[in-house]
Amino acid sequence: MQNLTVLGTGVLGSQIIFQAAYSGKQVVAYDLNDEILAKLPERWEYLKPMYLRDLPDATPEKLDAAVARISTSSDLGAALADADIVIEAVPERLDIKQSTWEQVGKLAPEKTIFCTNSSTLLPSDIAPFTGRPEKFLALHFANEVWAKNTGEVMGHPGTDPAVFEQVAEFAEEIGMVPIRIYKEQPGYVLNSLLVPFLDAAGKLLVRGVAEPKDIDNTWKIATGSPVGPFEIYDVVGMMTPYQLNKDSADPESREFAEYIKREYIDRGWLGKGSGRGFYDYSGA
């Protein structure tokens, strides 16, 4: 599978695009309008120094070649026209993902395999909307995909086992370590471990127990971890925890979502990629 289309160019979508192109794939980046897509060159310039820092084989020439393998489109039909595989990275809401896949299923070539990068939703809740559930499954990436390179492959009961293996092989081709998940699990392996940890940090904050820096330092000093939960939030970006928590049945989770929106999102502080989140990265 050489031709990839990525739906959504946010934090993870843009990383998936760049990583696949760096690994030699031809990638079409799709988003809702050309104004969003016009910002991608800035994103590539942001990512290049990280590749040079973290990957021993990275060179400026390889990074420029990766950018040359990326094209963009705000026309969904055109973006899908020659796709061997599609990876969806749209906002983490079931209705948005279902409606997106309903459109994709009508426009994509018969050959195309469909993958969602959803962090918490089950493939079986989306598969019926695709029109080809046997070719639909999840391929989930960790943030900073070039360095934290797990590719969690999770089907649903109707996924063709051969397609499951094709996606696992594709993940390996783009530099991921395939993690085969044999039973649907909200949050896969990574987020089943990570989300409760981040939730606990958010609740400590909204309860007024401690400030983000002190919560992070407690975790880092006591465990030897290089990062704390609020530093992880900054890498993930503010929109994901906001979307996940704003409609929660837990009042403290909803309070945390409102706190994020009021104190960060409304100010344009969207996390590390924007230069400011819980921490200020403007001088980095």
Automatic annotation (TrEMBL):
Gene3D superfamilies registered for this protein in UniProt: N-(1-d-carboxylethyl)-l-norvaline Dehydrogenase, domain 2, NAD(P)-binding Rossmann-like Domain
Alphabetical UniProt keywords: Fatty acid metabolism, Lipid metabolism, NAD, Oxidoreductase
InterPro entries: 3-OHacyl-CoA_DH, 3-OHacyl-CoA_DH_NAD-bd, 3HC_DH_C, 6-PGluconate_DH-like_C_sf, 6PGD_dom2, Mito_3-hydroxyacyl-CoA_DH, NAD(P)-bd_dom_sf
A molecular-function term among this protein's GO annotations: (3S)-3-hydroxyacyl-CoA dehydrogenase (NAD+) activity
Domain spans labelled 3-hydroxyacyl-CoA dehydrogenase C-terminal: 187-281
Reactions that this protein is recorded to catalyse: a (3S)-3-hydroxyacyl-CoA + NAD(+) = a 3-oxoacyl-CoA + NADH + H(+)
Pfam family, one: 3HCDH_N
Protein EC: 1.1.1.35
Domain 3-hydroxyacyl-CoA dehydrogenase NAD binding: 4-184
Pathway(s) served: Lipid metabolism; butanoate metabolism; Lipid metabolism; fatty acid beta-oxidation
Signal peptide residue numbers: none
Name of the protein: 3-hydroxyacyl-CoA dehydrogenase
Biological source species: Leucobacter chromiireducens subsp. solipictus
